[in-house]
Amino acid sequence: MSADRSIVFVVDDDPAMRVSLESLLRSVGYSVASFESARDFTLMQRPDLPGCLVLDVRLPGLSGLEFQRELGRSANPLPIVFITGHGDVPMSVAAMKAGAVEFLTKPFRDQELLDGVHRAIELDRRARAKATMLAELRARAATMTPREREILPLVAAGQMNKQIAQALQLSEVTVKVHRAQVMQKLRAKTVADLVRIADRLAADADANQPDDTRV
Predict the structure, then answer these.
(1) What pLDDT is attached to residue 80?
(2) Domain HTH luxR-type, which positions (predicted)?
(3) Number of Cβ atoms within 10 Å of the Cβ of 208
(4) How far, CA to CA in Å, does 89 sit from each of 94, 102, 104, 105?
(5) Which of 59, 142, 157, 211 has the lowest CB atom count within 10 Å?
(6) Average of per-residue pLDDT across 89-110
(7) Is the pLDDT of residue 91 over 90?
(8) C-beta separation of 175 from 165 below 8 A
(9) pLDDT, tens only, 118-132
(10) Residue partners of 26: CB distance under 8 A and separation at least 6
């Protein structure tokens, strides 16, 4: 199990449990930061590393489930591994439906926790890679002219230069020039590449629309 450049945040109001979890996680190479409450965690400046949150359900102030909902609405969410000494089926179902990676009832085996943490960090690593890729695509797309933005979905839809020229009332030569610029700016080597890029940009734009504007 590799803990290369990753961090685990532990939020549990039991000092003995915090010490035990810190020792276990550090023994396999993870960096660990622990907190007594969810509010204490929010005061921390999080490092820019893949990570996850090991979160107790019962906490002073904001409960673990309440904090899960709050964190899920934030711009910087984290995968969560829940731990609890007072769990029940409805509680675990609610946590998992809200996106928890694991829900463990104390006492749990060390390997169960380590497996859950490993899965959670890998999820965060993939989410970060996807976010970086989308940011790069947005930056490339921002260099396109309004006309090139018009042409992109038509090319991605498989239309030929002649069809695009007719649709936009342009000459085929002009369409060909714009099409080449679109390919270059988006760094698409083939039309198949361009289709994938266009799909990702469209999905990203749709995901960032306010809920009341979606169909």
Answers:
(1) 97
(2) 137-202
(3) 9
(4) 9, 13, 11, 11
(5) 211
(6) 92
(7) no
(8) yes
(9) 999 999 999 999 999
(10) 32
* Residue 132 identity: T
Cis omega (within 30 of 0) for bond into 90: no
Whether the CA torsion 21, 66, 6, 41 is positive or negative: it is negative
**What's residue 213's pLDDT?**
46
Helix (H, G, I), strand (E, B) or coil at 147: helix
- Tokens 């899965």, residue located: 119
Q: What CA–CA distance (Å, rounded) separates 56 from 36?
A: 10
Q: Measure Cα distances from 125 to 19, 118, 210 in Å.
A: 26, 10, 26
Would you say 128 and 110 are in contact if contact means Cβ atoms under 8 Å apart?
no
Nearest-angstrom CA–CA distance, 10 and 202: 37
What pLDDT sits at residue 65? 92
**Structural domains of the chain, ranges and CATH numbers in brackets:** 7-133 (3.40.50.2300), 143-213 (1.10.10.10)
Please, what's the b/e burial string for 74-113 (b: 16 or more CB within 10 A of its CB; e: otherwise)?
eeeebbbbbbbeebeeebbeebeeeebbbbbbeeeeeeeb
d(CA 71, CA 95) in angstroms, rounded, equals 13
Name the nearest CA neighbour of 153 among 167, 136, 173, 174: 167
C-alpha 16/C-alpha 186 separation (Å) is 53
Which of the two residues, 96 and 209, has the higher pLDDT score? 96
Nearest Cα residue to 18 out of 38, 1, 32, 4 = 32
